[in-house]
TrEMBL record:
<feature type="region of interest" description="Cytidylate kinase">
    <location>
        <begin position="1"/>
        <end position="237"/>
    </location>
</feature>
<comment type="similarity">
    <text>Belongs to the pantothenate synthetase family.</text>
</comment>
<comment type="function">
    <text>Catalyzes the condensation of pantoate with beta-alanine in an ATP-dependent reaction via a pantoyl-adenylate intermediate.</text>
</comment>
<protein>
    <recommendedName>
        <fullName>Bifunctional pantoate ligase/cytidylate kinase</fullName>
    </recommendedName>
</protein>
<comment type="function">
    <text>Catalyzes the transfer of a phosphate group from ATP to either CMP or dCMP to form CDP or dCDP and ADP, respectively.</text>
</comment>
<comment type="similarity">
    <text>In the C-terminal section; belongs to the cytidylate kinase family. Type 1 subfamily.</text>
</comment>
<feature type="domain" description="Cytidylate kinase">
    <location>
        <begin position="7"/>
        <end position="227"/>
    </location>
</feature>
């Protein structure tokens, strides 16, 4: 095998995937691919164009006109930073995190043409390997050949609390815990029950439950698993 290893990190919203994936990539000298940011960027574009996110034909027509670009090195002073994202060269890093985009992204991400297009871009990105990718279908669809697959989980209550802290830090309105929990359950439900590439644990994925773990502990577990995996296959490339 000639390409460098790939780490796939899947799991539900708020499990800690992007935070952990960025730090793992940084520590191991790999690139980071935030596939959720790609679905968010496309959803932002759909809304910006005034297109109905529930209309798969109209959304599919937009696809050739939406070029998504993201940065792959996103840790500064050991602090994970979100990937910077552009749609047709417009910076949308903050805009793709809005409540409007969050509310519609699972609807857009359920559409066949959307997944075909974005999965293709993700696979191209990973052609040479050396990537940590996080999302919902990385281990099952995007990189089924990934050397290490992690399924990150946390309880709904824990994820709602994390979300509250994130919103506080962003100085955005902070809904009640139960409201956040319900939004999380709803997105879990949509992501797990859709027909194409639903969120599910790959057979060969290792589940890491993060409820009682710090970010650092999760990162250490994953880098240790990676080192074992690479050692077992005899060298990093
Ligand atoms: O960070 P958060 O958990 O809020 O979500 P995200 O990773 O940014 O993903 C946003 C949405 O994109 C998810 O709720 C899924 O509907 C969709 N998504 C997907 O379908 N497949 C992926 N590989 C990544 C995200
Ligand atoms: O990408 P995903 O939606 O899975 O989660 P995230 O945005 O990386 O993490 C959600 C929040 O949980 C962030 O504020 C993380 O700092 C926090 N987190 C945590 O408190 N403990 C962990 N073990 C992992 C993440």
């Amino acid at each position: 095998r000639s390409r460098a290893p790939i780490i796939a990190i899947d799991g539900p919203a708020g499990a800690g995937k992007s935070t952990v994936a960025r730090l793992v990539a940084h520590q191991l000298g790999l690139l980071y691919l935030d596939t959720g940011a790609m679905y968010r960027a496309l959803t932002w574009y759909v809304l910006e164009q005034g297109t109905d996110p529930q209309d798969p034909v109209a959304v599919a027509e937009l696809l050739p006109h939406c070029q998504i670009r993201l940065t792959a090195q996103v840790v500064q002073d050991d602090q994970p930073q979100p990937s910077e994202v552009w749609v047709n060269d417009r910076p949308v890093t903050q805009a793709i995190r809005s409540a409007e985009v969050t509310a519609q992204v699972s609807t857009v991400a359920a559409q066949a043409a959307v997944r075909q297009r974005l999965v293709q871009q993700q696979q191209q990105y990973g052609q040479q390997g050396g990537v940590v990718a996080d999302g919902r279908d990385i281990g099952t669809q995007v990189f089924p050949q990934a050397e290490l697959k992690i399924f990150l989980t946390a309880s709904v209550a824990e994820r709602a609390q994390r979300r509250q802290r994130d919103l506080q830090a962003l100085e955005q309105p902070v809904p009640e815990l139960e409201v956040l929990a319900e939004t999380i359950r709803e997105r879990d439900r949509k992501d797990s029950t859709r027909a194409i590439s639903p969120l599910r644990q790959a057979k060969d994925a290792i589940e890491v439950s993060t409820d009682a773990l710090t970010i650092e502990q999760v990162v250490d577990q994953i880098t240790a698993l990676y080192r074992q995996t690479v050692a077992n296959r005899g060298g990093p490339s």
